[in-house]
Amino acid sequence: MAVAKAYGIPGERVEERAFLPAAISRMLSHDGPYLLVVAIEEMDNVFPMIPIGASVEEILLNKTEKFTYPED
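Request: output the structure for the sequence above.
Response:
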């Protein structure tokens, strides 16, 4: 949020599901860039995802399957 604010980009952080629809509505009705940070519980398992501290090469497609980049 601090980086967005430094660039003059409005935004907000949502931590509760009940507030998400209104936040999405504000984001979509805004003319221009807008940062919406949606915090989720670790157990919500939103896939695909990149685990904290991992690189993009370590993307998870589900709980057990990692994405494998094709060979060049």
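The two ends are 37 Å apart (CA to CA).
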